[in-house]
Design a protein that fits this description.
Structural class of chain B: mainly alpha
Number of strands of chain B: 2
Oligomer: heterodimer
CATH architecture of chain A: Orthogonal Bundle
CATH superfamily of chain A: MetI-like
Order of helices and strands of chain B: HHEEHHHHHHHHH
CATH superfamily of the largest domain in chain B: MetI-like
Shape of chain B: globular
Number of domains of chain B: 2
CATH architecture of the largest domain in chain B: Orthogonal Bundle
Radius of gyration of chain B: 25 Å
Helix content of chain A: over 70%
Chain lengths: 295, 300
Amino acid sequence: MKAKTADKLATSIIVAVAAFIVLILAGLLGYILFRGLGHISFDFLTSAPETIRKGGGIGPQLFNSIFLLVLTMIITIPIGLGAGIYMSEYAPPNRITNSIRLIVEVLSSVPSIIVGLFGLLILVNMFGLGFSLFSGALALTVFNLPLMVRITEQALKGVPREQKEASLALGLSKWKTITSVMLPIALPVILTGTILAAGRVFGEAAALLFTAGMSSPRLDFTDWNPFSPFSPLNPFRPAETLAVHIWKINSEGLAPDAAQIAAGASAVLVITVLLFNFAARWLGRYMHRKFTAIK
Amino acid sequence: MAQSLERQKAKPHLVEEWVGKIYTLICILFLIITIVSLVYFVASKGLSTFFVNHVNVADLLTGLKWSPDGEPALYGALPFIFGSFSTSLLAALIAAPLSFCAAVFMIEIAPKFGRKFLQPVIELLAGIPSVVYGFVGLSVIVPFFRDVFPGQGVGIAAGALVLSIMILPTITTIATDALAALPKGLKEGSYALGATRWQTIYRIVLPTTLPALMTGIVLGIARAFGEALAVQMVIGNAPHIPRSLFESASTLTSAITLNMGNTATGTVANNALWSLALILMLMTFVFVFIVRWLEGRSKI
């Protein structure tokens, strides 16, 4: 075959494959939204699920997912930022630092189901937290921390050296330099990464099966006392999240409209993740524009 | 007098510096303690099957029958190990060529369209939760297989297909980064010699980026290997080695997911599940080390 013919053939194959992938993606998103959107209504989003009858909603699950996300991020962000700052600024370049980096890498690739099992063993049984939102949030923290550390580390590494040195030359302490000069510059990258990590937390299920549990008590949305067992705000109650709910009704759902509920819940989950993605992109671009005075 | 005043001024700086140092150190120590205890507890639980319950290691790794309630109770995990490897390798086999084509398309053929449109969409795909993939697999792929092939539609083929879509973004993103990071001179030199685009791609681009592409594939396999719920939903969960790709099977993760809640802590059946988790974790380490080794080779 002549080189030019081969080139044309290969190019068309690659373009065809790329088109095929776009088609799959569009089909996937279209299918989820098309099947699910029809089922989403205000009532579906707010009412409690039914076990055997038709017409159950996903209200408590949606609330649990959001609450769990907030709890997780409250725990993850300070620890992740601190560890990331240490790795990027304080860690001496030696063998210990390299092994810490390896440890973080290993932790980031441990399957989420194992994180869930670890949570079951340590948090639920050993610390006696039981199947609770708090156990779930801690398990998700373990699952999310490596990502947060890597985001922070990379963001801080991206800060121009001159700005750091100028600040140090003015006599600021290293910590002050990090918090007042470097973090604001790195903020757009950190924020974008954090929002994407939040999207990952929102859809996680395997780590939650054995930590946050697979059931939700009848929540009383008029009771906002965090110590009452039926209050939505009580962090020590079991909480089934939206992703876990989708899994559960697909494997053991008894309601006659289980497929529709799963479709609706999937659509809600995907839309939320899409929103997180767009928010991250928009915010990153907005802050970049704001900080760098580029039109 | 002047000296002491200076010392007083310098003090807040030092305090602040120490607070920062100690705070970040505590954070990193927390991280290290977490991972060390995770490895320790999973390993000690997983090994207690062999040391406390005296199940033979070889029997567990090569046994074909998993029946904890049987008489005698058998703990053969080979069907699960086989299921995990076959689904994840098959998934990589499907996803790798597609990802490579997508990456070449984005970098070499249509960079503007690729960067602006295809890449964001593929990144978005990476964020879709795995249960949603499982749900789509269960409501589209499984019925399709059931109609076209003999059997119930569930099985290794369905699992591998769902996983391949899931790991497509992982492999594509890494392949794209690798292609984009290639020094411009290499490609321009090839074009200057009169090579066509395809010749340049498979003679220059592919060999030089091969370690990075392999890294992407290994990371994809690792992700597929550890994925629990999406696979569990479409694989059928029969604890034996299937005779065809369209017959119900199981993976390590699906066995753990399904049975962990039904066994009491401390029993042999429960510990055997922890052994499966240990195998899963050890495989993760193997994948991490393969990736490290590949990264060490990819410095051009």
